[in-house]
Amino acid sequence: MLENGFADREPSQVMVEDGKVPESKRSCFSRRHCLFFVLVLTAVLFFYCTDIKEMTTDWNQTKWWIPFKDHRQNLGSLNNDPLSSELTGFQTQSGSTVLLQTENITATNMTNRTATNTKASVVTQQLAKTIPPSPVPYKSPGLYLVEYPYKYGFIINEPKTCEQQKPFLVLMVPVALHNRAHRDIIRSTWGGESLVLGKVVKLFFLLGLQTGEGVQQLQDQLLQESREHHDLLQSDFLDCYKNLTIKTMVMLEWLDSHCSITSYAMKIDSDMFLNVPRLVHMLSSAPKTNYMTGLVARGAAVLRGPRSKWFVPVELYSSSVYPRYALGLGYVLSIDLPKKLILASRHVKAIYIEDVYLGLCMQYLGIPPTEPPNWGYFQVFPVRYSRCAYSRLIATTTHDDTNRVRDWKDFKKPGPYC
Ligand SMILES: *[C@@H]1O[C@H](CO)[C@@H](O)[C@H](O)[C@H]1NC(C)=O
Ligand SMILES: *[C@@H]1O[C@H](CO)[C@@H](O)[C@H](O)[C@H]1NC(C)=O
Ligand SMILES: *[C@@H]1O[C@H](CO)[C@@H](O)[C@H](O)[C@H]1NC(C)=O
Ligand SMILES: *[C@@H]1O[C@H](CO)[C@@H](O)[C@H](O)[C@H]1NC(C)=O
Ligand SMILES: *[C@@H]1O[C@H](CO)[C@@H](O)[C@H](O)[C@H]1NC(C)=O
């Protein structure tokens, strides 16, 4: 969760609790004394046509115009703030308008689809022992619908890369289609690390589809980029914030079908710094199964203000807190988990907040996220670059104005870090 905004804190004091944190545009506003403040901005949805209940049942070819407006927002809180703390922060992106169209979910029988896979059947049998056998039929949550489970296909794929290169770790980076600059920066910094401590590391970018003007041109550029780098995975869902859960689930499906040879996968946002050697080092002594780690949020409040960026109506999720989940800025999975999470997703109603959704699926599986061995490893508030500080962490958000390439070059220079 977390898209825009967030707060700052001392690098060494990160523990996310009781709150949501912004996931992409992050910027810092102060230093110490800030531990208890999370500022988050967000876009607001004004839903014209209807109330939520109505939408919940309105499940045919109805279109809604949803204007997003600039806006500040309650992010819940980190640390020990009361769940209700309304934090107003800074402004975010400019308003934009999105046409949301719902369509019938034509019954791609996902249970059936995965069940035909023999390996999946084995897992299903194993899971059947621990999971109550009462599948909740998928029901559209209306406006907050996530069109998943659904069988999405790949337009650009790298089906054989893992098989051929046998990575120990794959880095999966969701990124907007047009954001070639971000991809190039990642390729020339931490994403370019292909052999770390003797282990093969592979990088992939996850993309959806775009609509509107210039689509064909953009697609041609993507194909060219794919021929150059062989690291793009493009699926046929519409790429937008509300579809991030789809992106994550498609990622898990891809890992399960095309990269089960790896030992671990990490989903990491494109604006992060990643210390790959420290990550590989941590993983070399990590559990091999049922392992998900990152910055683990506990007792995060469900935001009920309809204007909240992460508003979730009671109809969608009734409890007032989320289960423990690893923040979406960067989490690591052992490779047995994608299959299990996909199976769990057939029983857990999809919500659009992707990291929370994985938390719900983990809860369903009865597998709690694992705390990292060092609680400073994953940082949600940007740590200012220094060789010493960055050598001690695994992943941190960065400021927008960070010169990542310069910092990376400095970080890779030989010599002591501290
Ligand atoms: C589909 O939507 C239209 C307009 O919102 C509504 O009048 C109609 O009853 C709906 N049909 C079904 C089957 O829900
Ligand atoms: C959508 O569902 C309705 C009712 O279930 C059905 O009559 C209609 O043909 C469906 N439309 C499409 C495009 O599948
Ligand atoms: C999906 O497949 C499962 C097992 O094959 C079956 O029990 C279920 O009824 C199917 N659901 C639909 C909607 O076809
Ligand atoms: C899956 O569905 C297809 C057609 O819908 C059916 O022929 C097949 O038997 C199903 N497989 C399983 C394992 O249920
Ligand atoms: C999410 O993706 C689906 C599948 O492409 C699409 O039908 C839907 O409109 C998308 N959602 C939004 C909010 O754009």
Characterise this structure.
The chain is an alpha/beta fold. The protein has a domain at 156-372: Alpha-Beta Complex (Spore Coat Polysaccharide Biosynthesis Protein SpsA, Chain A), CATH 3.90.550. The chain is 27% helix and 18% strand. It has twelve helices and 16 strands. Strands 6, 7, 8, 9, 10, 11, 13 and 14 form an eight-stranded mixed sheet that branches. Helix 7 (244-258) packs across helix 9. The protein is globular and about 55 Å long. The protein starts with 39 loop residues before the first strand and ends in a 6-residue tail after the last helix. The relative contact order is 0.16. The model is unreliable at 3-125 and 127-141 (pLDDT under 50). One 2-acetamido-2-deoxy-beta-D-glucopyranose (NAG) is lined by residues 109, 112, 115-116.
Task: Write the SSE topology.
Layout: E1 40-41, E2 44-45, H1 52-57, E3 63-69, E4 72-73, E5 96-101, H2 110-115, H3 118-130, E6 154-156, H4 161-165, E7 169-174, H5 180-188, E8 195-196, E9 199-209, H6 215-229, E10 232-238, H7 244-258, E11 264-268, E12 272-274, H8 276-283, E13 292-297, E14 325-334, H9 337-345, H10 354-365, E15 378-379, H11 387-392, E16 395-397, H12 404-412
Parallel strand pairs: 7-9, 7-11, 9-10, 15-16
Antiparallel strand pairs: 1-4, 2-3, 3-5, 6-10, 8-9, 11-14, 12-16, 13-14
Helix pairs in contact: 7-9, 9-10
